[in-house]
Design goal:
CATH topology of one domain: TIM Barrel
Mean pLDDT: 85
Order of helices and strands: HHEHEHEHHEHEEHEHE
Strand content: 5-15%
CATH superfamily of one domain: Glycoside hydrolase/deacetylase
Radius of gyration: 47 Å
CATH architecture of one domain: Alpha-Beta Barrel
Low-confidence stretches: 31-35
Helix content: 40-55%
Shape: elongated
């Protein structure tokens, strides 16, 4: 059966229209993509420019470096103030210890306030008992004092500074007055014996009624200069006017009980005959308890009075 020509015409026309629509649609899509790509490039360029302008504005808004104010320059150059007494007696220094030792079951006999007329007797007893001790001496001058100090050193005992004047009020007025007294005794010992003493004992102990306001500073300054100080943990109580031979003996033996190390305070002055009299018995008793005897050095771990630390 033959188709009508009109029908064939309309079919061809529909096909052409469909092709045209498809072509138009593709063209529109292509144009849209091209346009979108162009917009993206423009937006990116605009964003980059905005970032550049923002960075430039921030740079302009940033405060410019200005020279420090005078007070700031002064603060930057500030250094800790050096206390005046630190510059006094520039030769009053010794080498500090490089180590500390704690000996077991050891007694350190220490004699304060000499040399005195009784010093030779003390030295005779120590020599007989084969014991070494330590003498913290005062400002005794003259040929006899010189000979006694020299004998202390030559027989292997330790010698240290106690005080030149033994005037508590004068010594502990200030750090300056302490250093002045100390230096005087230090030079005396060095001149008589050739020894620069590295150890010392405070008159009245490191903390006493006369130095409560400045003992921190004095202790700190002496340590800074390299010196080592020793207090005691056993006292013979022989400075008391009521002391007797028996009380001196008992104070030492009872005080040493159950202690591993004993730094024993005794006195070497002209009125301490009872101390001298009881010394041989004290040495024998302590030896029988297993103690050995030694002189103090700056390498012996000090026994010192506890004090309140600042800061």
């Amino acid at each position: 059966m033959l188709k009508h020509p009109t029908t064939k015409f309309y079919r061809r026309t529909s096909q052409l229209l469909l092709i045209l629509v498809l072509l138009l649609s593709c063209s529109f899509t292509t144009a849209l993509l091209i346009t979108r790509s162009g917009y993206q490039k423009k937006l990116q360029a605009l964003s980059n420019r905005l970032e550049e302008e923002t960075a430039l504005q921030q740079q302009e808004d940033k405060p410019q470096d200005t020279p420090p104010r005078e007070e700031e320059s002064t603060a930057a150059a500030w250094e800790p103030e050096v206390l005046e007494y630190a510059s006094l007696f520039p030769n009053l220094y010794v080498e500090p210890p490089t180590k500390r030792e704690v000996a077991e079951k050891t007694v350190y006999l220490t004699f304060d306030d000499g040399p005195s007329p009784l010093t030779p007797q003390v030295l005779d007893i120590l020599k007989e008992k084969q014991v070494k001790a330590t003498f913290f001496v005062t400002g005794q001058e003259g040929e006899q004092a010189k000979e006694r100090m020299q004998r202390i050193v030559s027989e292997g005992h330790a010698i240290g500074v106690h005080t030149y004047s033994h005037d508590y009020r004068q010594i502990y007025q200030t750090v300056d007055t302490f250093l002045e007294d100390f230096d005087k005794e230090f030079r005396l010992i060095e001149g008589y014996t050739g020894v620069k003493p590295k150890i010392f004992r405070f008159a009245g102990g490191s903390i006493n009624a006369f130095n409560m306001d400045n003992y921190h500073m004095i202790i700190g300054e002496m340590i800074r200069r390299g010196f080592t100080y020793f207090d005691w943990n056993v006292s013979a109580q022989d400075a008391s006017k009521k002391a007797t031979k028996q009380s001196i003996h008992d104070s030492i033996i009872c005080g040493a009980k159950d202690k591993n190390r004993c730094i024993i305070l005794l006195h070497d002055s002209g009125d301490k005959a009872d101390t001298i009299a009881v010394l041989p018995q004290v040495i024998d008793t302590l030896k029988s308890q297993g103690y050995t005897f030694a002189p103090l050095t700056n390498e012996v771990q000090p026994i010192v009075f506890p004090y309140e630390r600042i800061g």
